[in-house]
Amino acid sequence: MNKLYVALNLIRLLNENRRVTSQMVAEDMNISLRTAQRYLSEMSYLPGVCYDDACHCWYMSDKYGLSESYLKQDELAVLSGLFDYAENILQNEYSGTLRRIKKKVISASNRENIIRFLKGDSIDFEKIADIFTELENCILMKQEISFVYEKNGKTYTVLPYRIIFSEGFWYLAAGKDGAIRKFSLDLMSGVKTTGKTYDSLPDGLDREIDGAKSIFFDPHNKRDVVCLMSKDMADYIRRKQFFPHQQTLEEPEDGSVRFGFVCGSALECFKLCVTWIPHIRIESPADFRDYFRDTLKQASAD
Questions:
Q1: Which of 20, 103, 149, 295 is deepest in the core (most CB within 10 A)?
Q2: CATH architecture under which domain 125-204 falls
Q3: CATH number attached to the domain at 3-108
């Protein structure tokens, strides 16, 4: 389904109903419940779009809304984010058109577009559109699949669970030999069903995905990590959850923050912490700390 069409319809539903459930979106757009949930989750970063855990619904905060003929600044924030979202997904095919429309909307409203979104490039969706649709059907039907993975030339047989968008790439989260594996959609080919099905997803998988901060999460291996963030960056840790299940443990007098989080592997821990160099220090567990140190030494030596 056209991503811009999806985004515009979600904003319309949110504006008309204020509170929207995935069931309402599924019925209105004639799509599956899971697809509706994914579309809504992808829209949650837009200004004013919020999620209510208590009633499992999405809503527009009171000060946001598209009404009347003159767009207020908060309304422009929604539209600006919407255009950025669509351009990021659609990439080159429609980016010029979207930029022109966005400019016209802002000019017509006689307001300066002061809200900007920082985003990385995404893989061209056209490259994975066919396999995306095929995997979506297999997940809905809970069908076991096999495919060739171009990264290593191997053939895998897995239980497809979820499609995940992370840092510009699309991944399949799948079950294999009791573990959760992730595969890049653009490296998969020859997808076919085996004729076998599975009953249900692993308990808590969606919760794990929702709480993950990188694609390297592993719901079957949980390790508690303790880090110290220097005072220069400590305020970021106080203001936002950058790490899975992040908790402040101590605030020393020097202004630093000692905090804990949970991750599944040394690789995931490295991925989460490396962008904070040189302000972060891993205190425990020792094997994660050593992996972090040795990897950095190897990189500098090379």
A1: 20
A2: Roll (2.30)
A3: 1.10.10.10
Q: Which residue has the higher pLDDT, 71 or 141?
A: 141
Average pLDDT over residues 187-195: 95
pLDDT of 108 > 90? The answer is no
* Other beta carbons less than 10 A from residue 97's beta carbon: 13
What percent of the chain is predicted at pLDDT more than 90? 36
- Could you read off the pLDDT of 235-277 as tens digits, one per residue? 999 998 899 889 999 999 999 999 999 988 898 899 999 999 9
Phi, psi of 285 (to 5 degrees): -75, 160
Segments making up each domain of the chain, as ranges: 3-108, 125-204, 223-301
> Would you call 193 exposed, middle or buried from its count of C-beta atoms within 10 A (0-12, 13-18, 19+)?
middle
Whether pLDDT at 211 is above 70: yes
> pTM for this one?
0.56
User: What whole-number distance in Å separates Cα of residue 86 and Cα of residue 200?
Assistant: 32
